[in-house]
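Pipeline run #58 for the internal structure catalog. This entry was flagged by the ingest filter as a single-chain record with no existing model, so it goes straight to prediction. Upstream metadata was stripped on purpose; only the residue string is passed forward. Reviewer on rotation: M.T. Logging verbosity set to normal.
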Amino acid sequence: EVQLQASGGGFVQPGGSLRLSCATFGFRFDDYAIGWFRQAPGREREGVACLSIEDGRTYYSDSVKGRFTISSDNAEKTVYLQMSGLKPEDTAVYYCRNSGGHRGQGTLVTVSS
């Protein structure tokens, strides 16, 4: 069974950092790209970062470029999203999805003073 489990969300003040984790199960990790998306109330879903496991290519949305870093531990089949310089507008439910369209439940990130 394909599973993607996001974790690591929480409450942080503006300017702070968090690291999200996406643990994956049930598919050949190296054959896929894994992306992080976010959904905030009243806003469209946004793809913020993506990583091709096979060749290491990355993509970042303009809204997070320079602040977020996507990486992976291929042995653990886990993808991370290191978020720094967090802003209130980064508040959202973050979830991960593979390029086969499977996604898991999200993890809530709240940035507020």
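catalog note: Strands lie at 3-7, 10-12, 18-25, 33-39, 46-52, 58-60, 68-73, 78-83, 92-98, 107-111.
catalog note: The radius of gyration is 13 Å.
status: ready for reviewer M.T.
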